[in-house]
Write a structure and sequence with these properties.
With 318 residues, the protein is α+β, with helices and mostly antiparallel strands. It has eleven helices and twelve strands.
Length: 318
């Protein structure tokens, strides 16, 4: 990944940004490779592999910047990708988090699953994107070449003001990986900040380079962390209804995996729920500490619209 994608970041970012590789206690020759071939790139060596959440929290402690750009190692950036985002930060003081357009590295005319044209969340806490609803991914026809308010920005390429990151105490390390950026954006909005998408900045993402869609551990993390987002952040007047509904809907998803002869994914959902039950009180306590304002998109169910009403594109959702 470093050999393939670090060159584009160096070539198209060096004039506007300091570049760091945060190494999460790797066991290969990543550090030696960067030192040999990219001597101007700074290296932060984490002592343990705490996943995405703790990995960034640890690494950013030693980095001084007004704005952080957290970018996965499987992303190719394009020329002039940073300037449009910095312009929005400069003009919009209340904007704390920004995501660029994320296209598929293998099909560069198509949005990529992890973020696409900016993220949203439905009544039950299920995330979806402009340009990607569940597994239906749209072609990029410049339909999202705008600057728009979104609910969450993809952790694959995630810009955030450092002062806001520190205010929020970074990512919740209990998530390890997957959907911790949804939680961070939710908490940022609870504090009154805005999350934006800037469509004239483009990056290309392979997606699934760390955990592929077929990996049951990815299913476990996505279902567990999505439910933790609900427990931490859903307004109290909707809390019991949404939590109960999620348990039912996740059960339906488990049955669907069984019908598809993918029982390991059904077991991953069971494990996700067992983990949530085990940590339920801990996350209720976090809810009390973190939630100051409610910012929650009370959309209808994206599950209902996608699977029952067969609405596959973002523009068709109601």
């Amino acid at each position: 990944m470093l050999e393939q994608f670090l060159p584009s970041i160096v070539n198209f970012s060096s004039e506007l940004a300091d570049i760091y590789v945060a190494d999460n206690a790797s066991t290969d020759n990543s550090i030696g490779y960067v030192k040999e071939f990219f001597p101007l790139v700074h290296i932060v060596e984490n002592t343990t592999n705490g996943g995405y959440a703790k990995g960034y929290n640890d690494a950013l402690k030693s980095i001084d910047a007004d704005v952080y750009c957290l970018i996965n190692s499987d992303i190719e950036v394009s020329q002039n990708w940073i300037s449009p985002i910095l312009e929005v930060f400069k003009k919009e003081k209340n904007t704390a988090i920004i995501q660029p357009k994320i296209l598929d590295y293998k099909q560069k005319d198509t949005f990529e699953y992890a973020g696409a044209g900016g993220g949203f969340i439905d009544l039950y806490g299920y995330p979806y994107c402009r340009g990607r609803v569940f597994n239906n991914v749209e072609k990029d026809t410049k339909q999202f070449n705008d600057v728009a308010d979104i609910f969450w920005a993809s952790g694959a390429c995630f810009f955030i003001r450092s002062e806001v990151y520190q205010l929020l105490k970074g990512f919740d390390e209990n998530y390890f990986a997957h959907q911790e950026e949804v939680d961070l954006c939710w908490r940022a909005q609870n504090e009154g900040f805005d999350v934006k998408y800037v469509g004239n900045s483009t990056v290309y993402h392979i997606g699934g380079a760390t955990l592929q869609e077929t990996n049951p551990q990815k299913t476990f993390l996505n279902f567990r962390n999505s439910l933790l987002n609900v427990i931490k952040n859903v307004p109290k007047q909707w809390f019991l209804f949404v939590v109960f509904s999620r348990l039912v809907l996740d059960g339906v998803a488990g049955i669907k995996f069984l019908i598809e002869l993918r029982p390991v994914h059904t077991w991953a959902i069971v494990r996700a729920h067992l983990s949530v039950y085990k940590n339920f009180y801990k996350f209720l306590q976090k809810r009390k500490r973190l939630q100051k304002k409610y910012n929650y998109n009370l959309h209808t169910s994206v599950v209902w619209q996608y699977f029952i009403l067969r609405r596959k594109k973002f523009k068709d959702l109601r």
